[in-house]
Every structure is written in structure tokens, then in C-alpha cells.
Amino acid sequence: MTFEGFIERREMSNVLINKARELKPQTRTAVEAELDRSLKDDEDVSIMAFSAHEAPEGEARVRAGQNLESYFKRIDKQAAKVSD
Predict the structure, then answer these.
(1) Cβ partners under 8 Å of residue 45, min gap 6
(2) What are residue 48's DSSP bridge partners?
């Protein structure tokens, strides 16, 4: 990736992470309205935007499920080693 490509990707970010105290007043008000509660100034607020896609079907869906199961088993094994 070129430096220009990096800058372009940063400008088109799909993720915003800020402390509540750093949000614009109108943004904070909107988030609080959606959560139906007040934010504490030191809370982290993350907002993500991404395009939805169709779920896989047929064999691709089966493979995706198997891949997820394998991934979760690996994570479980790693977690068991850490907790021992």
C-alpha cells in the first residue's frame, strides 16, 4: 500500500472511537438518545459503519460454519492454557 493509499483510507474511516467528553454536543445527545441513558465523561464510545452483505448459502454456508467452529475451538484451547 502506498502512503497516499494510507491517507485515503484514514480519511474514509468507518470507525470512530472517542471518550464521551470529546464528542460534539449533538453527537453525544444522539448517542445518549439511542442508548436511552446518559454517558459518563470517561466512557469510550465507538461508532462503526459498514455495508451489509448477503449470508453465504449452501456449501459456502456449511464451510463458513465449520471455519467458525474451528476458530472457536482454537480460541478455547488458548484460553484454557492461559487459565491453567
Answers:
(1) 16, 17, 18, 19, 20, 23, 31, 39
(2) 15
pTM: 0.51
State mean pLDDT over 65-80.
92
Instruction: Give the residue, 67 or 53, on which the prediction is more confident.
Output: 67
Between CA 44 and CA 27 the distance in angstroms is 13
Mapped onto helix, strand or coil, the DSSP state of residue 45 is strand
Cell of 15: 470507525
Which residues, 6 or more positions from 40, have their beta carbon under 8 angstroms from its beta carbon? 20
DSSP state of 35: H
